[in-house]
Amino acid sequence: IYYCLFNVYLMTFLHYIGLFALMCFCFLLSMCFVMVCRWEEERYTDGVKWKFLEHKGPVFAPAYEPLPSNIKFYYDGKPMKLSLGAEEVGTFFAKMLDHEYTTKDIFRKNFFKDWRKEMTAEEKAKITDLNKCDFGDMHEYFKAQSEARKALSKEEKQKNKEENERILQEYGFCVMDNHKERIANFRIEPPGLFRGRGDHPKMGMLKRRIRPEDIIINCSKDSQHPKPPPGTKWKEVRHDNKVTWLVSWTENIQGAIKYIMLNPSSRIKGEKDWQKYETARRLKKCVDRLRAQYRDDWKSKEMRIRQRAVALYFIDKLALRAGNEKEEGETADTVGCCSLRVEHITLHPEKDGKEYVVEFDFLGKDSIRYYNKVPVEKRVFKNLQLFMENKQPEDDLFDRLNTTILNKHLQELMDGLTAKVFRTYNASITLQQQLKELTSHNVPAKILSYNRANRAVAILCNHQRAPPKTFEKSMQNLQSKIDAKKEQLSDAKRELKSAKADAKVRRDEKSKKAVECKKKAVQRVEEQLMKLEVQATDREENKQIALGTSKLNYLDPRISVAWCKKWGIPVEKIYNKTQREKFAWAIDMADEDFEF
DNA sequence: CTAGGAACTTAGTAGTTCTAGG
DNA sequence: CCTAGAACTACTAAGTTCCTAG
Question: What residue ranges carry the coiled-coil annotation (predicted)?
Answer without folding.
Answer: 475-542
